[in-house]
Amino acid sequence: MLNFSFYSPTEFVFGKDTELQVGTLLKYYKAKKVLIHYGSGSIKRSGLFDRVVQTLEEEKIEFVELGGVVPNPRDTLVYEGIELCKAEGVDFILAVGGGSAIDSAKAIALGVKYKGDFWDFYDNKAVPKTALNLGVVLTIPAAGSEGSGSTVITKTDGMLKRGLFTRHVRPVFAIVNPELTYTLPRYQTAAGVVDMMSHIFERYLTRTQDVILTDRLAEAALVSIIEAAKVVMKEPTNYEARATICWAGTIAHNGSLGVGRQDDWSTHGLEHELSALYDVTHGAGLAVMFPAFMRYTVDVDVQRYRRLAVKVFGIKDKPKKPMKVALAGIDALEAFFKEIGMPTSFEEVGAKKEDIDILLKKLEINRGSTFGAFKELTLEDARKIYELACK
Amino acid sequence: MLNFSFYSPTEFVFGKDTELQVGTLLKYYKAKKVLIHYGSGSIKRSGLFDRVVQTLEEEKIEFVELGGVVPNPRDTLVYEGIELCKAEGVDFILAVGGGSAIDSAKAIALGVKYKGDFWDFYDNKAVPKTALNLGVVLTIPAAGSEGSGSTVITKTDGMLKRGLFTRHVRPVFAIVNPELTYTLPRYQTAAGVVDMMSHIFERYLTRTQDVILTDRLAEAALVSIIEAAKVVMKEPTNYEARATICWAGTIAHNGSLGVGRQDDWSTHGLEHELSALYDVTHGAGLAVMFPAFMRYTVDVDVQRYRRLAVKVFGIKDKPKKPMKVALAGIDALEAFFKEIGMPTSFEEVGAKKEDIDILLKKLEINRGSTFGAFKELTLEDARKIYELACK
């Protein structure tokens, strides 16, 4: 087991009607003027925006609002948010939405407290030292951004998609009401499921041996996500299944399922170029890339893939035929993705084999000529994985 | 699933040589003058105290010290610590030790910031609103106090043992180096194992249905603890097994394995009277009480006990004979406690059947005439459980 630091200071407030606590929480965390940051108008149509605003008014907390966050959130709106916060004296950012709204809010929270260009942080030119406090009302379980120190922003000029990890953007609170996810489109629910499973895979696929407790916790979460996803595809208003997905999505990315081991993140790297070039939903892009990545790396540690197959996908173990078991597990994963309506090939997301050179060029800019930890991938490896995903 | 709040803000710094980071962490958390609080002189003999002090000196952080914490820590030392902190202008408390040192440090941290008698908090006469910041260097994995909001103090006058839960005493950081636990006596290692397993049982034994993710996470931890405990009994310096026990002990009590359900704590209640009256090690007392409690409550939810038996103790499932499976699981738990050298009867800890009336009288003072959630226990139920533990 490697040395590690685990730090997840966010206060998670989980359950029915918990969005009604947002005013009280903001007051507890001493918010005076809040930026409410969100994506489309769906939170207004659903009445969520009004419910949230009412709790702020009850606590006499002022606010301004900025909507319009898009999937794969852009730098342009971040700049707008930073200016707005500075002009209005905002001291707390409240993201209402999914990973995109939260990631955009994190970038604004960093930018308000920084004299230079916030993109410096995403471009590795500066390291964040502080940020405005940030709270979340989650509406899409997927990115785990409500409990993570991660934020991913796309620079419109060149469509560069860059991630950043810093303790300073971990939300001080995150409100998660599974009922708010009842009305998510099937595709978005499924993409969220793939996203959170991927966060666990990026940690599970490790070269670090002997972290059996972390393995078991990760398997417990994966099994529960798969089981619950199958339920919500049939019963979108099944509270227990929605709740399982919501909480699993949070712990999948708050660090608790990865302690003590080197994590990987190469599949996220491969996928980021897909979603940047084609504006593919992140989870859908991961559904395309993960089976390909796994097949390409199965011989790196066949026993690990065998364990995954047996413990998570219920494949019958054959200790003398570990590769067979391992590959059956990957097949089962792909079949599960298809079952919940996710794409598993380039074609299904509008990606083209002819564009692979472009993907590789941008991958090199964003990740360098080699990347990854489970297997150190060269650009040639990346090409082969993209080709595998073409089918 | 019930609504819940999960809040575990502690920064856990885990692994080899991590105690050398204590000075840096104290500086990060703005400590100016520190009380180092500990138990016996073993941290001085082992050199740990000097290593810790050196890192404080390197950061030019002043400190005073107060040793002498005993198992089942007493109010008398807490009063002494509060006076010392006030006299010396201490602004940060560093506990170096196990649950007793940490719990005592928590009481001091509360008392320094309170005008009245700190015991008010433990006596339900006042609710904590703030506390001094607190850090931990853990030497005994057991109580999980390094990551919890719990503290248990014994009032010497009347030997009243009382627990308190408040967010204000969650440590800001906790350093956990599994190597520091290599030299723990076997008995103390085993008692710690029982303690952390009990923290999970108190959450696992619930009437709340449909929290399957939490069930699976709890089972993952239990299986890992049992496996690792068997290893360390034979190889006290097995790093991976020690690390598993250390991390499992932390997550067993930081709340992560209990979300979304009503927890119980009646066995802790029953045990507190044992350890208060006979000064029994808490973990050893729990090893005596848990099999008795489980046998007494097996019919409350035989399917839950059956699941525990199958998933954690590897008992062969017989869906048509759930009680048989359930009882076999409890037998396996008791056998495991014996295997690691723990007592499982009154006699082995010097407790006497004749004293049950005294235990019940104190239980009534501390818990009232009924308590517990898995099964609401009357004092008559408590008597029968104590009698079961007499064998």
In short:
The structure is a homodimer of 391-residue chains. Chain A has 391 residues and is of the alpha/beta class. Chain A is 49% helix and 14% strand.
Ordered list of secondary-structure elements with their pairings:
Two copies of one chain form a homodimer.
Chain A: E1 4-14, H1 22-28, E2 33-38, H2 42-45, H3 48-58, E3 62-66, H4 75-88, E4 92-97, H5 99-112, H6 119-122, E5 133-138, E6 150-155, E7 160-165, E8 173-176, H7 186-204, H8 212-234, H9 239-251, H10 266-278, H11 282-297, H12 302-313, H13 322-339, H14 356-367, E9 370-371, E10 377-378, H15 379-390
Parallel strand pairs in A: 1-8, 2-3, 2-4, 4-5, 5-8
Antiparallel strand pairs in A: 6-7, 9-10
Helix pairs in contact in A: 1-3, 4-5, 7-8, 7-9, 7-11, 8-9, 8-12, 10-11, 10-14, 11-13, 11-15, 12-13, 14-15
Report the average pLDDT across residues of chain A: 97
C-alpha termini separation of chain A: 37 Å
| Main CATH class of the largest domain in chain A | Mainly Alpha
Name the pair of protein chains with the most residues at their interface, and give those residue counts: A-B, 39 and 39 residues
Number of helices of chain A: 15
Which value, in Å, is the CA radius of gyration of chain A?
20 Å
Features:
homodimer; 391 residues; alpha/beta; Rossmann fold; Dehydroquinate synthase-like, alpha domain; 2 domains; 6-stranded parallel sheet; two-stranded antiparallel ribbon; 15 helices; globular
